[in-house]
Each structure stands twice: as C-alpha cells, then as structure tokens.
Batch of 3 targets.
Target 1
Amino acid sequence: MHNHNHSQSDNSASKRIGWAFFLNVVFTIIEFIGGWLTNSTAIMADAVHDLGDSLSIGTAWGLNKLSDKEANATFSYGYKRFSLLGALINGVVLTAGSIWILFEAIPRLLAPEMPQVEGMLGLSIFGIAVNGFAAYKLREGNSLNERVLNWHLLEDVLGWVAVLIVSIVLMFKPWAILDPILSIGFTLFILFNVIRNLKETLLLFLQATPDAQQMEEVHKVLMSSDDVMDIHHFHIWSLDGEHSVMTVHVELNDDISVSQLKKLKEQLRHGLAGFDFVHTTIEIEFADEDCRDV
C-alpha cells in the first residue's frame, strides 16, 4: 500500500510536468510569432528564454518518468535520483538563463527602445494566462523537481506581468526605460529563489542529511529502549528530495533472547513508522560483538 501511494504520487508528478511542457512549447511558438509581429526585441528575447525552458522542462519530464522505473541490479535503490538530477539540471539552466537576461536588460537602461505597445499588451495577457495555469498545475506537486520547474514558470508569469504593466504605462507615457528596470527587478527576485533551491538540490545530490531536526528525532527513537546502549554509523539521506533512506548500527547493553530481540525490533519498527522512510537498515550488535564497519 505504501509503495502504491508513492507510485500514484510519481505518476501525478509526471502528468503535471507533461502539462507544463506542452503549454510551454505551444506558447513559445506563439511568442516567437508575436515577437516578430510586434517588432519587440524584449518579447523575442523572452521567447528564446522560453525555448530554453521548454527544453529544460522536457528533460525534467523524461527524467521524472524514468524515476518511476523499478529497482534492478544496476540501480538497486531504483531510479528516484534521476528526478533529482532533473532538478539539478533545471536549476543550473534557469540560473544561467536569469544571468543572461540580466546581461540583456542592463544595457537597455542606456538605450531603451519603444516596442509596438498594443501587441505587447495582448501577448502579456495571454502569457499570464498560459504560464499562470501551468504554474498552478505544478504547484499541486511537492517534489523538488516540480518546485524548481515551478520557478521556471513563475519567472515567466512575473515577466509577463512586467510586460503588461509597461505596455499600459507606455500607452500614456513614452517611458521605455521601465521595461528593463522591471525585467531586472523580477529576474533578481527569481534568481535569489532559484539559487536557494539549487543549493538544496546540490546538498541532496551530495547525500547531505535532508533534515537535521528529523535526524535528532530518529536518534531519540533509536535510543528509547533500555536494551540499547548506543548507536553509530547512523545515516539518513534522500533519494530525490521526498523519499529518504535510513541506516544505523544499534549496540545492545547485554545479550538478549530471541524473543526480546523480536520485541526490540517491533518497538523500533513502530517508533520509525511515522518518518515514512522508503528503506531502513538496522544492524544489531550484541554486547560482546565488535563492529565490522570500522
């Protein structure tokens, strides 16, 4: 039942990412056409950025679907970490894309250009609707991959909000410099959050402890029995930001009977149930036994 629920969650994540990919590709094509018709370099630049987003989301979709495959002799823990790889790739791509946008926008502060305002207004409304719907779909998910992709789409939504505001203002005032100012502001905001998510992804990819507080709580559970003297080789790591694994060596105070050992195992099983680990390994070491992992 536990694995079945995770499978349903993973399938839902793939569907949500698939929706985001389809909407982004279709809108990128429309955006290229709209940028050409409005003679707007800003929209054309955003279309190039959206093309990168589409490739990035498509990669994440494929990796997320691959992560649903069952474990085998090559990947004994399954393919969950491929989803984490997708999040890592997308974080890097979005960071690079945001930096590129800054390099494009900053020079326009010195030489702003007036675009075709009516076309900008129409495309901005359409862009907010399409990207907003895609971001809403991904917001339903909890995976790290979906969270990183959601920043892709949120960046596009905020970018189109900037275009909408600028296009309305430009209808009354020829302040073309507002376009690069707002673009830089939104991009810096998105870049800050993406780097934060990218840092988390890198730590998980390097098998850092996902939650220090959880580690302390698990430690208390493992030490709660009077039969346990100490624990060591205690590790918790995450496969993909959602599914975690725990291993530990448990040292006993004295030699105990088989029935007592079964009781201890049941106690630990019950205590660890609330942490929802996908895999746990507990090695019992008797009082007169040396640890084989020095």
Target 2
Amino acid sequence: MLTLHVAENSPETAVLIDGSTVVAVGPYENLTAAAPQARVRRWPGILTPGLLNPYAPELLEATYHPDPREADALGTEPITGERAAEIFRKNPAALGASARRGVQRMLAHGTVAVAGELRSRAAADVVRRAGLAVGQRPSRLPGPPSLSPRPLILLPPLTQQGPARFAVFDVASREELVKRGAGTCVATVMAGRLVYRSR
C-alpha cells in the first residue's frame, strides 16, 4: 500500500513509500499527482532522514532504563555509572529488557541508526530486531552520551528505492532542530512502519 508522508514545514521533501521502500522523494504536489491513491499522513514540522546516535554501547549496555513499574523505587530517568552496573550485576537478564526500553527512547528521539560496538548479544539483538541501521562511529564524539547528542548527526538524504526509514520533528527548520534537539520528535518510521508517534 502506498503511503505519502508530508510535513507542513518541508513540503518539498515529501516521501512516498510502498511497504519498507521509498518510492519517491520530492514536492508534495508532484507526489500526490503521481500517486493520487496513496494514503496521506500529515505531520507538523519537518521531515528528515532521521538521526544517528553514536552512543549505542553507552545508552544500551551501560545505562539502565527503568521499567515503569519500577518508578517508585528507581524513578523514570535513565540510570548510569556504578548504580547501573550494580543493577546488571545483580540481574544480568535485566540488560535485554533495559536495552528494549532504551531503543524505544531512541526511537522517540528520531534515532533510526546507531553506532558503537555492542558487546552483549542481548543489546545487539534488540538493535537488529528494531531495524535500526548500524553506522560508523565518528572519530570525535559529540559531547557526553545522550538521547539527543550535541551536535545532532543527521543521516544522508532519503533516496528512491532506499529504506523507508525517517523521522519528523516539530520544528520550523533544521536550524531550529539543531537548537532545540531531538526531543522535538513527533514521529519515527522504520521499514515503512510508524514505530513512534508523540500524538
């Protein structure tokens, strides 16, 4: 089924997808004329190729993402350092569940690719099952590990017949995205499926 994604502040980069593949990228008017039968998804902000987060090991293997049921005891924010290491020492099986929650947080920040060597099979399997692309880790990392690293690393433009993997941010421009960060994500699409939607 053809789906046409368009964001109000970047109508010139609308994306027509068929399943998990990009059929075309271009102005909304051109794509809707070429495929009038396509289902249209309209988004606020801008549509981008999505982000690369270079901190996969730090965020998925060295950080504990609490289960919502643990909020009373552990809070809701990611836990790092010796406290996270202690959680994993006491319960090695917690790594896989934490990595799944970590990937969900990444998707909620427009991440569609990660980098960094994952040493645990549990975290690597979570990344593979989520469909996240695995990219090259930059030689110089941007600041401390974060779900919204500074500066943001945007992936290359979407291409025809490429994977339908992208993110939408509720900002007026790329400059505003850089300024406000990845917390402005409103939608993330992986393999043509909407895997995160803020509203």
Target 3
Amino acid sequence: MTPQDGGMHVVLSGDLTVYSVSELARQTETIPEGAVTVDLAGVGRIDTAGAWMLARLHQRMTEAGAQMHLAGARDEVMALLTSVTKSMPAPEPAEAAPPTSLLDRVAALGKRVAGSVGYLGGLLGYLGMFLSRLMRTLRHPREFGLTPLVHHCEEVGVKAVPIVALMAFLIGVVLAFQGASQLQQFGAEVFVVDLIAISILRELGILLTAIIVAGRTASSFTAAIGSMKMREEIDAMRTLGLDPVMLLFVPRILALLITLPILGIIANLSGLLGGALMSWVELGISPEMFRIRLMEGTDISHLTVGVIKAPFFAVIIGLVGCHAGMQVKGNAESLGRMTSSAVVTAIFAVIVTDAAFSIFFAQMGM
C-alpha cells in the first residue's frame, strides 16, 4: 500500500483464494478512509472467497463515504466479482419506529384488540366444527375411527401420568411443609390437613395438571398438524374427500376430554399422598389421623369443583393446539413460532378460565 494523489494505491499479487484471504482481509482493515485504487494486474487465481473479500472491502469503503476503484483486473476476475457482489445479502431494513403520538398508540391498541377478537372468533369456529362432527359421529358411529382415539389417549393420558403424579406429589409436600411452618405458630397443626385437601382438590390438582398437559399436548398437536400442513397432506386429504376435522381434530380433543379428568384425579391422589407423608414427618400426624381428618373436614364439593373444570380445560387445550397447527405456513420457522404460541396461549387460557370458575363458584356459594 502506497499513498498516491490524496488516496491510497493497493497492489495485490499472487493467488487470491480461501487460503490467503484471511491474512489479506486483516491487512486491508488498516486502509484509511479516502479514495482507494486496488491494482489486480498481478493477481493469478481467484476464487469466491477472494472475490467476497474484495466485495466486502468495497461495501465497507462505500459505507464510510470513500471511493474504491479496481484496476488491471482481467475479464474473468471482473465477472466473478460481479457475480459475488450480486449474491451478497442486502442489509435488512430498519424496524419501524414505535408509535409516538397518542393516535398511533390508540391505533396500535385497536389492532391488537381486533386481532384478539379475530383469534377468539377462529377458536369458536373450530369449536363449532368439533361439535358438529361430534354430533355426526353420534348419528353415524361407523364413520369414527376408534384406533386414533385409543392412540391419542395413550399419548395424551398414559404417557403423562408419571410427570403429573410426580408434580402433584411434590406440590403436596411443599404445601404440607409451608403450612406446618405457619400453623405451628398458632398451635393449629391439625388444620394443615384441611389446607392440603382444599388446595389440591379444589384448585392446584386440576390446574397444574392442565398446565402440564397444555405444555406437552398443545405443542404436540400443533407440531403434528402443522407438519402435515407443511407437507400438503391436509390438502391431499381434502382432495380424496376426507374430512380433516373428523380425522385430526375430533380424536385428539376427545382423547383430552377422556384423559384429563382421570389425570386430575391421579394428581389429587398423589398430592394428598405427598401432603400426608410430609405431615407425618414434620408434624407427627399419622396416616390414619390424616385420613380421619380428611374425611371429616373436607366436603365432596371441593372434589366436584375441581373435576367440573377438567372438560373445559381439555376443550380449550385441544382447540388451541389444533387451531395453531392449521395456521402453520410452508416453512419450519412458522411451525416453531406457532408451536410456541400454542403453548403460551393454552396455558394463559387455562389460567383465565380457572379464575373465571373461581369467581363463579364463589358467587354460587360452592
């Protein structure tokens, strides 16, 4: 590199290939801003790595407001440089600035509300399709396949038993330990049984079970249906005269309706077992005393309240998973985005529904 007429004159010689481009790129980083002339007359062989280095140097000089000229390049070298330059990715456009005025903020909020209303409308539409196909199944039982239902019951229910039971057992242990720590201050240790029973049977057992099922099942529904949509299998089913709702949605949602209440009962039993064990260890409440206090101090309505929620949670999780799967586009990025969205939406919907049920049962005096 030699100064020349207020600029810099760079002479390159030898082969400009992938083996030498790293060292050359390091040396060209020290080129000062200004007019630069690169003499390529002495360059022998050049590959795409060398051409990329020159194109990147030209791009860097242009962004800095400097000029770069190539001299002495052969026709084949210029053709390769032109091809590589055209193939370089264009810079991503800058993101739009967030709304600043009050009107922009109101418009953005309106768009979000309209999108939420449209999403709820889509879920209601899928609910209507599920109910209509379910009534058709009751009228024509032969059209319904029992094998997919059994398969999904195993995937949704049987394989979820270990994680649900372990989660509920640990929740019972934590409730008993924390309850004992607080109730011992007032000499009311025996009421820890009521605390565990009401918390698990009424709220935590079925709620945490639904959250776990939403995380593992809504994602699997979205991934399975979305993959079929990407491979155009759903379009092929419609071409063959098959109903995707009957074949894909109904068995999955029915499997959730059947297995989620059972998983909730398993979670209740595991939670009570964990609470009884910790009460025995921490407070000295024997299992027999725990059982007697449980039977005397806990009403069956608490179990009823918990079990009533299960079918509603099951329908919500199934609809969200199936709806998200049908929204997948023809690429893997869309599949991942919709899978993540389905899990978040299903968990959020389950928690909101549980809160609504809590308010409803409180107003009903249950």
